[in-house]
């Protein structure tokens, strides 16, 4: 409603009223247009089934044209998804010992000189960051003048990671600094060829660590400076490394080990040599130790393979970049945390999807439902049957829903670790 009243000295003007009404109507029309055609409104609007199907086909064609090839037998891949942080000073060892899951000292009490895999937990025992730690001796040309450690973590979370570490520094005599990619970079090398193995030793320009998470995964390399490591290996890509990691069933980064949600044992950090159950106290130790000695870990991150609903379940885990048709769904199209259910049956969720590429990926799976692994203690109400099949379903209703079958595999290194 338009108010025509005003101060006593204001005279009524038909022309002014006319333009005020036009101005108000334009404002109403503009707001209505924004409500109707804003990105949020278009996202809520129902999509035509034919349009939705065409969009999915275009996405599949784009992925098929750029699908990563199979990883080579040998490769040296830069990892831009990972970055380094320097923790140096006279109390760096004591400082890290109280906040990481692995042991920073040797049996004789002296600091470790070899690199290792570990993690940061919060007070409730959830994973905050999965990390590698590399001891180094300070000096000219190195990340710090004092002795300390290079800590490798998810590059996209580096600012938050540095803030997390500084929260526990208090009065400790340590210096925390983010390392730029020109100072040091992270690489992964592997060689599965039957010929002579290349030199994988550390020297004055690089730190080399045999990846302890799974056998055959390769070597982690910290290259000082901006150059690539000088090794007799062909330069590969991070996609190749990611595919190899999925085939080995190894999660990495906060997309696959969700921040402050994932439990370290469910993420296989105990079997991947990332937790020392005999060291002293550290942040998040209570729940981790109690789960290890008194609980049963019923869910684990496993490598998974997706396949079309009209095909038979795969018997082996194989990466296949080829696409049969534009209708073929790919693992990168499955939204994170999509629930895994029994195909053709109802019941409790069998797990959730994490991330994938092509036809493979990682899922957090219930062992007693999706695998033949026998857990100690009481058996679940619904146990594994070899004929069971599982499905991932996501999207809207009716014709907008997408679905694909999925099968989980238990790597031999994980099976051996669970039975130990």
UniProtKB/TrEMBL annotation:
Say if the entry is tagged with keyword Mitochondrion. Answer: yes
Predominant localisation class: mitochondrion
**Does the keyword Mitochondrion feature in the UniProt annotation?**
yes
Q: Any idea where the CAF17 C-terminal domain is?
A: 298-415
Subcellular localization: Mitochondrion matrix
What cellular-component terms does GO give this entry?
mitochondrial matrix
For this UniProt record, give its keywords in alphabetical order, as a comma-separated list.
Answer: Mitochondrion, Transit peptide
Which InterPro entries does the record match to this protein?
CAF17_C, TrmE/GcvT-like, YgfZ/GCV_T_CS, YgfZ/GcvT
Q: Name one GO biological process term.
A: iron-sulfur cluster assembly
Report residue spans for region: Disordered: 58-79
Family per UniProt? Belongs to the GcvT family. CAF17/IBA57 subfamily.
Q: Indicate what this protein is called per its UniProt record.
A: Iron-sulfur cluster assembly factor IBA57 homolog, mitochondrial
């Amino acid at each position: 409603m338009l108010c025509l009243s005003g101060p006593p000295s204001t005279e009524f003007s038909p022309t002014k009223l006319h333009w005020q009404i036009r101005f108000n109507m334009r404002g109403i029309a503009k707001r209505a247009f924004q409500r109707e055609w804003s990105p949020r409104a278009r996202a809520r609007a129902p999509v035509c089934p034919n349009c939705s199907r065409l969009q999915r086909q275009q996405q599949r064609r784009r992925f098929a044209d750029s699908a990563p090839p199979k990883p080579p037998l040998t490769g040296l891949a830069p990892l831009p998804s990972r970055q380094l942080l320097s923790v140096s000073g006279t109390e760096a060892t004591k400082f890290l010992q109280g906040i990481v899951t692995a042991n920073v000292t040797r049996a004789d009490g002296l600091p470790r000189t070899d690199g290792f895999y570990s993690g940061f937990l919060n007070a409730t025992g959830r994973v905050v960051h999965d990390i590698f730690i590399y001891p180094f001796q300070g000096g000219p040309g190195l990340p710090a003048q004092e002795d300390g450690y290079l800590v490798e973590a998810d590059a996209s979370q580096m600012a938050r990671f540095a803030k997390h570490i500084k929260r526990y520094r208090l009065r400790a005599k340590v210096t925390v600094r983010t390392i730029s990619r020109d100072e040091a970079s992270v690489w992964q090398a592997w060689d599965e060829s039957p010929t002579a193995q290349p030199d994988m030793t550390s020297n004055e320009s690089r730190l080399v660590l045999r990846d302890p998470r799974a056998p055959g995964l390769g070597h982690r390399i910290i290259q000082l400076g901006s150059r690539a490591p000088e090794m007799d290996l062909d330069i590969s890509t991070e996609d190749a490394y990611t595919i190899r990691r999925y085939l080995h069933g190894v999660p990495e980064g906060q997309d696959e080990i969700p921040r402050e949600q994932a439990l370290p044992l469910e993420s296989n950090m105990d079997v991947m040599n990332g937790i020392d159950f005999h060291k002293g106290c550290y942040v998040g130790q209570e729940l981790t130790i109690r789960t290890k000695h008194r609980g049963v870990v019923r869910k684990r991150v496993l490598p998974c393979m997706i396949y079309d609903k009209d095909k038979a379940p795969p018997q082996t885990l194989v990466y296949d970049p080829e696409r049969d048709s534009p209708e073929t769904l790919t693992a990168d199209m499955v939204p994170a945390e999509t629930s895994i259910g029994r195909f053709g049956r109802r019941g409790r969720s069998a797990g959730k999807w994490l991330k994938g590429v092509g036809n493979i990926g990682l899922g957090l799976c219930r062992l007693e439902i999706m695998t033949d692994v026998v857990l100690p203690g009481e058996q679940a109400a619904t146990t594994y049957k070899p004929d069971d099949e599982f499905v991932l379903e996501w999207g809207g209703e009716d014709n907008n829903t997408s679905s694909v079958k999925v099968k989980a595999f238990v790597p031999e290194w994980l099976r051996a670790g669970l039975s130990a």
